Amino acid sequence: MTSSYKGNCHCGAFIFTFTTPTPIDTGSPCNCSICSRKAYLWVVPENFQVVKGDEDTTLAKYEFGTMHLAHKFCPTCGISVLARQKDPSRLGGVSVLVNLRTVQDIDLTSITVKPPFNGAAKGDPYKTPAFVPVAGEVAEGATEYHGNCQCGAVAFTLVSPEKITEARECNCSINSRQGGLWTYPATSSITFRGVPDAVTEYTFGNHKTFHGFCKHCGVTVYERFLWEFMDGKTALNIRTIVDGEVDMDGLKIERVDGAAFPPAYVVPT
After folding, report:
1. Where in this chain does the record put each CENP-V/GFA domain (predicted)?
2. In 124-266, which ranges are continuous DSSP H helix?
3. Does residue 43 have a pLDDT over 90?
C-alpha cells in the first residue's frame, strides 16, 4: 500500500511531499566525505513534489568530485534536504534522494539503518584540507583534533586536555535534522579558520544557541551559546573531525531529549 510523506527544512522555507510503495522503516547511510559529515539517511522517493519554495532557487546547491550529484540544503537554516542526480542511470534510474531526517512523523530511533554505502571508494580519495595552526606550544599530554566542513572553507583545531570518548546526540527539531554528534570544549581551546566569513549562523526559539554551518557545502560545524550555563564553551560536531582521530565505534553517546524542552517546535505547513 502506498505511503505518503511530507518533509521540510527546519525554518520551513522548503516543504515537499512524496510517496513510497511501503511504509518507511529503513534508511541508507553513506560513508563518503559529505554524507558522513551530514549523517544523511537516504530514502528513494516516488512522486516527489515541492509544495513550498523552489528546489533551484530556495535551496543552495553543492557539488564536488565528479559533479554528478547536487547536494541541496537550505541556506537559512542549513538543513540538507535532498540530493539530485544529473544522470539517473548512474543510480539505477533514481533521480532524487531525500534525507530521511527531514521527513515529518518519522521516529528515527525505530528506523533500521542499513550498512553504509561505500561512497568513499568512489572517485578520487578525499583530500583533507590543511590543518589550522595553533598559537604557542601544545601542552604535554594534550591531544590535537582537526576538523573541517567538506569543502574546507571552515576548519578548526581543538587542543583538548583529554581524549574525546563521549558525545551528545539530541532529538530536538534542529539536531535531529542535522544529525550532529557534539562535544563541548572550552571556546579558548579551539582555533577556527573561515569563521565568520564562510559561515552562516542560524538561531530560533529562545535565540540562545547559534548553529554554524558552512555557507558553501552546508556542513554544520559548531554551536555557539548565549546560555549562562554554557558560558565559555562551544559545541563541535564530532562528525567533522578528521577520520581516525576519534574512535567513532567506541564513542559513548549520551542521548538527550531536547524535543521535550520548550518552546515546542511548530512543524511548518
Report:
1. 5-127, 145-262
2. 175-178
3. yes
* DSSP, res 216: T
The mean per-residue pLDDT over the stretch 164-187 comes to 98
SS3 content of the chain, % helix, strand, coil (to 5): 10, 35, 50
pLDDT greater than 90 at residue 53 = yes
What's the CATH number for 3-121? 2.170.150.70
Residue-wise pLDDT tens digits, 184-211 = 999 999 999 999 999 999 999 999 999 9
Long-range CB contact pairs, 181-184, < 8 A, 24+: 181/39, 181/237, 181/238, 181/239, 181/251, 181/253, 182/223, 182/235, 182/236, 182/237, 182/238, 183/235, 183/236, 183/238, 184/230, 184/233, 184/234, 184/235, 184/236
Residues 238-253 pLDDT 10s: 999 999 999 999 999 9
Backbone angles phi, psi at 178, to 5 degrees: -75, -35
CATH topology of domain 143-260: 2.170.150
Please state the domain extents for the chain.
Answer: 3-121, 143-260
CB of 47 closer than 8 Å to CB of 146? no
Distance CA(202)–CA(197), nearest Å, equals 14
pTM for the model stands at: 0.96
Cis peptide, bond prior to residue 88, ω within 30 of zero: no
Residue 87 has pLDDT above 90, yes or no: no
Mapped onto helix, strand or coil, the DSSP state of residue 109 is: helix
139 and 161 in contact (C-beta within 8 Å)? yes
User: With contact defined as beta carbons under 8 Å apart, do 268 and 12 qualify?
Assistant: yes
Same fold, 3-121 and 143-260: yes
Measured between alpha carbons, how far is 62 from 45 in angstroms, rounded to an integer? 21
Q: Could you tell me which residues are beta bridge partners of residue 69?
A: 85
